[in-house]
Amino acid sequence: MDRFDWNSTYEGLHSGFSGGVTRGEKRPVIGITGNYGDHACSLAEGYYMSVLTAGAIPMIIPPFEETDSLGDLLDQVDGIVLSGGGDINPLYLGEEPVPQLHGINQVRDRQELLLARMAYNRQIPMLGICRGIQVMMAALGGELHQDISGFQTIKHSQDLDRGRASHSVNIPADSLLHGIMQTDRLAVNSFHHQAVKTPAPGFRICAQSADGVIEAVESSEHKSIVGVQWHPECFLMAADPTMMPLFRWLRDEAAEFKKAKCLHDHILSLDSHCDTPMFFEQGIDFNRRDPKLLVDLHKMHEGRLDASIMVAYLKQEARDSQSLAAATSKADRILDEIEAMAARSPRMGEGADAIPMVGIARTPADLYQMKHRGQKAIMLGIENGYAIGSDISNVERFRRRGVVYMTLCHNGDNDICDSAKGNAEHGGVSEFGAKVIREMNRVGMMVDLSHASEKSFYDAIELSRQPIVCSHSSSRVLCDHPRNLTDDQMRRLAATGGVAQTTFYTGFLRTDGQASIIDAVQHLNHAVDIMGIDHVGIGTDFDGDGGVPGIASASEVVNFTRRLLRQRYSDTDIEKIWGGNFLRLMQQIQAASEI
Length: 595
Description:
Number of domains: 2
Helix content: 25-40%
Number of strands: 24
Number of helices: 19
Strand content: 15-25%
Structural class: alpha/beta
Shape: elongated
CATH topology of the largest domain: TIM Barrel
Oligomer: single chain
CATH architecture of the largest domain: Alpha-Beta Barrel
Strand order of the largest sheet: 4-1-5-6-13-12-11-8-9
Largest sheet: 9 strands, mixed
């Protein structure tokens, strides 16, 4: 026997599986769910060879019942293939089994239904194959046919060689799948009798056979998820490259996701405005994945969001002395509740070294220290200067308890200034408002002009000795709403050193129809074009009115980073966008404080 040549074998592997990944970059890891039977995990060769040939690293995910480790496992992969196999137990879907049901596996069903949901929450790119498309739809709220033999008019369960096509499917021209496969009609193989009956919310049908059976679904929310009813890996094992675009698509999406995750590991991501405290009276639990909330501890982890400025929001009410005192009292109570919420967070570490998973930060330095320790951070803000009543000493008192910015008004004029939705009571900033702005400068509190009228905006810039911010405001040129900033306002803000944070409320992104992550990116791009990269950021308004498909909660923050990467923003640019600019200004203003 000839001596084994390690060097030539290694070189062959190195060149043979480059798959288009840039030399020097680590290839993405794609987890593939394994089949299960006779107390053993198995996986058809086609799955892992297709992933390898596409240029990614396959990792088999065996079926196991201990699900506490799934989160850690999913944090190690960049993409998922949900592989084919037996039927899904209809009991998990609230149905009784029909006689035509084939073999099921309870261990695999339970694990994969949970895995699909967790991967979806983490925004991990997914490709579901045959059983895999059914698992995705079942896990995410869709419906399945237990057996399609009763209404099919073509033969879906074939005896042909698995590498040969058995029928064709039609693909809509406006679908992601059409963009991947570059055709509106595709010959596929088919070996199934269960199928998707109704796609889950947030998904659309993107391929059907001649008899109407759903053959593929994809995300309708701009997410990297595709499920197909056929077996593309079998074509590839038969040396037919027709289906390779599916696996190359998954590789590319996984590579981009991997880069976004790595970037979030190294930068500090800050959302400059969220309204989670508005839900305190509804019995929410920030420490679990609460369905009422767009921001909670689990969603911050899933989306890789490090910090959020939570505001004590006050609706503009009457301005008599009793009402003003009540407003101040309410602001204090909300701030107390935010602090109590953080104090209740689980602890990490052992014994005396254990620290809470969530903490209150008062300075940018606090944020970076907490990021280093692995904690999530909350900063305190006030939305509506109504909170200080008529007592200007409240400005210093709120700053001393950690409030980093105050939005001067909300939807209605107050004693400080006119609102964008007010009656121009003062003709801009009032005399009292001028004193408030100077006091905010003195104590190191950021002046926030979101919600202010244009005249109030320009007055505040003239009055303030420090740059101002707009913590959650988008572009009026792209969406003509009085809450948004004109290009002239943006230019003036940038010229005076200020920062404008693009927000994700659909009504501030589009004047017609439902906005999406695409619109949010366009607003940010426009702000960069007008103001420059050093004067922009993100203030989501989550748990207020913010959140659009593609970036609908804190768990989807990483999706926005992926979009920024596609726009060719550099790592340094993205760091500035995700809070670097806002924190630079916060540091400047706090450093000038006289208290």
